[in-house]
Amino acid sequence: MLVWLTACGQKEGSGLERVQRAGVLRWGADAQGGEPYAMEDPEHPGQYRGFEVELADALGRELGVRAELVQNDWSSLIPTLERGGSFDVAMNGMEITPTRAGRVLFTRPYYLFHLQLMARRDDTTVTGLESLRGRRVGTLSNSQAWELLRGSGAQAIPYEGVQEPYIDLEQGRLDAVLMDDIIAQRYGLQRPGLRVVRDVAEGYYAIAVRPGEEDLRQALDEALGRVARSGELREIFRRWGIDTAAEQRMVEWTEAQTREVLSHTSTSRLDWNQVLLFLQASLVTLGVSVGAMVLAIPLGMALALGRLYGPKWMGVFTTTYVELLRGTPVLLQLYVLYYGLAGVLRLGPLSAAILGLGLNYAAYEAEVYRAGLLAVPRGQMEAALALGMPTRLALRRVVLPQAFRVALPGTTNDFIALLKDSSLVSVISVVELTKRMTITAVDVRSWLLPGALCAVLYLAMSYPLSRLARMLEAKLERA
After folding, report:
1. What per-residue confidence (pLDDT) applies to 478?
2. pLDDT reported for residue 7
3. Which run of H or of E encompasses 386?
4. For a Cys staple, 372 with which of 156, 273, 403, 448, CB 3.0–4.6 Å?
5. 450 in Cβ contact with 444 (< 8 Å)
6. Integer CA distances (angstroms), 255 to 13, 225, 338, in order
7. Is 217 strand, coil or helix?
């Protein structure tokens, strides 16, 4: 509350005053981006290293304050900056794009990069952007490469990390990867099965400043100019192995060039085309959830029956399975299944999503069905056996129908929970409903409308299921 009141009390353009009063320049970045941008220092836990860390320290020195990195997911750096309160500027390979230039203030650029296209060595059909139409190409969501791919006819596949796209390319899950040359050289060229096709575009990294804080942007511009002209900027680049002759342009950069780079702006709004993408993402969410539940129900029932009626070794196995799958995060299980086992189990994104969620929810279903089976009086089973029924027949005709009635509400609740948990599969490059919402929210500069549309679609998928379950429960009670 105090932070909010303070922010409300500040007048427009008071960014530099706020930084100087606090004595610290807080800059947003994502350590998941790794080397050479900003990453945790293994020799000094809790501290960071990278060329942007050194640049931030130099800028803080020029402003007479201390620089402090604030961890934030890369794809939401701009929305978080606009919201205010978390950090003063965003600097983490922040590319100047028309969409971003229409939303925030940018300083003069501090690094020139090229978008580098990579493909498998044995695939000679990838020759450039024109050869990517209709093909799966991985990149960072909401990046310059992302915007370029969406206009090329390629099927752009969004990722959160920089290493995962190259793993998928090597495994044949992607046809190509388009990312900044710094990333390609650090994470793509290290893989012998991949090759550089060519550079397809160039771009600039700059520091993003909150709209209205022109004084802070101007102060950072002047500080960048001093650091560049003194030779310190290129010395930082050399220490991290990213300096080229082209970076001299950053030393000789002029205000006129900044105006030219920032003159191209664009804005987007939520239109019918994006609504259609939401509907497509809803079908993905529904398909993954139904597929996972179709797997989870019979597997969960088998686990419950094995635990209660199987031999001792089977009881130990099923108990271990249930505790292991329930006791570890489903996100971790998806990472292990999709990336960790890629060398021995080559699954596509949708297959891995359905299998991962199905295996996880089978553990929960097993406990639901075990409770249902235990709720049936033991006398029912004993009477069936006394009448000469084999155990399997007694289970099928006497116990399971009654257990199903008890387990139905729990199963319905699990399926509704699965609809929401399916949002986690975005980490393995599946663009489901929540991922589509985050992409659109960044594009249209609003989280309210995309969020409301996302909520309505989730409700539209889950509410009919709840009604159907209640009708079925009522019918079973009358039977």
Report:
1. 62
2. 41
3. helix 378-386
4. 403
5. yes
6. 20, 10, 47
7. helix
Judging by DSSP bridges, how do beta strands 111-120 and 155-159 pair with one another? unpaired
Amino acid at 211: P
Single-letter residue type at 356: G
State the DSSP H helix or E strand holding residue 179, giving kind and residue range, or none if neither. strand 176-180
Cβ contact 358:395 at 8 Å: no
| Number of CB atoms found within 10 A of residue 241's CB | 12
- pLDDT attached to residue 400: 81
Identity of residue 371: A
Q: What is the pLDDT of residue 267?
A: 64
The phi and psi torsions of 142 (rounded to 5 degrees) equal: 60, 30
Direct distance between the N- and C-terminal alpha carbons of the chain, in angstroms, rounded to an integer = 57
Which pLDDT score, from 0 to 100, does residue 10 have? 41
Check residue 332 and report its DSSP letter: H
Q: How far apart are CA 116 and CA 184, in angstroms?
A: 7
Question: Which 3 state secondary structure label does DSSP give 182?
Answer: helix
Q: Which residues contact 229 (CB under 8 A, 6 or more apart)?
A: 251
Q: What pLDDT digit, counting tens, does each position of 155-213 carry?
A: 999 988 888 999 999 999 999 999 999 999 999 998 999 999 999 999 999 999 999 99
Backbone angles phi, psi at 225, to 5 degrees: -60, -45
Below-50 pLDDT ranges, the chain: 1-12
Q: Tokens for 61?
A: 């020195």
Check residue 404 and give its pLDDT.
84
**Pairing outcome for strands 89-90 and 208-209:** antiparallel
> Quick one: pLDDT at residue 6?
40
Alpha-carbon torsion (66, 72, 78, 82), positive or negative: negative
pTM for this one?
Answer: 0.81
Predicted pLDDT of residue 476? 65
Residues 6+ apart with CB under 8 A from 271: none
Quick check: 194 and 118 in contact, CB under 8 A? Answer: yes
